[in-house]
Design goal:
- With about 375 residues, this protein is an alpha+beta fold.
- It contains 16 helices and 9 strands.
- The strands form 2 sheets. It has a 5-stranded mixed sheet with strand order 4-5-6-7-8.
- Helix 8 packs antiparallel against helix 9 and helix 9 runs parallel beside helix 10.
Length: about 375
């Protein structure tokens, strides 16, 4: 995420310590929900008064709501729009109330993020789009085909890790669904992006191994189809689309006969997709007859993405399963408390001005450890 101010410092201005503000930032970006044990793990402390201090502050400022799960177990939901505005995501869906399965999925995502605080992680839809479009050079075509069919890009908000310079590790979170329909839909939605990469790994996150075998088979079944169609980084629409483009371009250049509406559509699409020097060389070879349909099919159908499926058994428990949840009523805040908590948006503007004057804009990192004043 690229901001011209430090959102953690903005949260500190309303009374949170640095590690409290950093944890709330992670919750707002990745999940919207958290458990007390997750904060304890983030600060590397056992259960005690430190977590209670964070909860008291957040409740006093009206930033949290409690979901009662039974057996004295609770889930905390970060709902304050001001907090999401402070991190640059005012329209975040994380502040909305979800069903039990989605809440569990969000909690699992946060645990995964806490497990990978030292890794490079794409933390927003904007960061993911920028990485795939600019860093890896993916065209808008596979991106739009795969992730923009809904109102939100990357709607699942599952973490994506980057190893080295370009190797991508996707994640899918299984919240103990009875069927694989959501996973199969995920594979279809991201199929074009997967195929456009030279290699990737998909981490299948679950708290039981019940679906591991079936999910592995569903994943493996995708790649014979991709290889048969000849989908590669050079041919994101498949080898047949490239051949259509070459024929349509030849007809257009030679003006042998009028182009059909399909020819015109393929030409328009191809001008946006086939733009590299390799594509130009291939077009030139086609024009002079030094390559043909069979050679092109053989070339691209023998290629395919290096794909790895890795089931990950997460060693954590979540209190939502089989419990009836309800909202815990929040105490009324006195007017003095409300007036002392200035809107975060105003404080964000002040923070932007201060950082602008200093000429330093720090990118938020994962900052654990102890507080100087604690």
């Amino acid at each position: 995420m690229s901001l011209d101010y430090d959102p953690v410092s903005v949260l500190e201005t309303v009374g949170y310590t640095e590690r409290e503000a950093t944890f709330l930032y992670l919750v707002a970006v990745h999940s919207g929900y958290f458990l007390r044990r997750q904060y304890d793990r983030f600060i590397q402390r056992g259960r005690g008064a430190i977590a209670a201090q964070l909860l008291r502050k957040a409740f006093a400022r009206g930033h949290l709501q409690t979901i009662v799960c039974g057996q004295a177990r609770f889930v905390y939901h970060l709902t304050a729009k001001q907090v999401y505005d402070a991190i640059g995501q005012p329209a975040s869906q994380h502040r909305r109330l979800k069903g039990d399965g989605q809440i569990k999925s969000r909690l699992m995502v946060l645990d995964f993020v806490l497990d990978h605080l030292g890794d490079r992680l794409l933390d927003s839809a904007g960061a993911k789009t920028e990485f795939f479009a600019r860093t890896l050079g993916l065209t808008e075509t596979p991106m739009s085909d795969a992730v923009a069919r809904s109102a939100y890009r990357f709607p699942e908000a599952f973490p994506i890790l980057i190893d080295g310079e370009q190797f991508v590790r996707f994640t899918f979170v299984d919240e103990d669904a009875l069927s694989l329909s959501s996973f199969e839909a995920f594979l279809r939605r991201y199929g074009a992006v997967f195929a456009a990469l030279p290699g990737f790994e998909l981490l299948y996150l679950a708290v039981s191994n019940a679906n591991f075998e079936r999910a592995s088979k569903a994943f493996s079944a995708l790649y014979p189809e991709i290889q048969t169609r000849g989908i590669t980084p050079m041919t994101p629409r498949g080898v047949d689309h490239l051949l259509e483009y070459l024929r349509a371009r030849e007809s257009h250049d030679a003006q042998k006969h009028p182009l059909t509406p399909r020819d015109l559509a393929v030409l328009h699409e191809g001008e946006l997709i086939y733009t590299t020097l390799e594509h130009r060389a291939l077009c030139a070879a086609w024009q002079v007859g030094s390559t043909n349909t069979e050679r092109i099919r053989q070339r691209f159908k023998q290629q395919g993405p290096r794909a790895k499926f890795t089931p990950v058994l997460m060693p954590y428990s979540y209190p939502l399963h089989q419990f009836r949840r309800e909202r815990m009523p929040q105490p009324e805040l006195r007017s003095s408390v409300r007036s002392s908590a200035l809107p975060l948006f105003e404080k964000k503007l002040a923070q932007k001005r201060r950082l602008s004057q200093e000429g330093a804009c720090e990118k938020v990192g994962a900052r654990g450890g102890s507080d100087p004043g604690t």
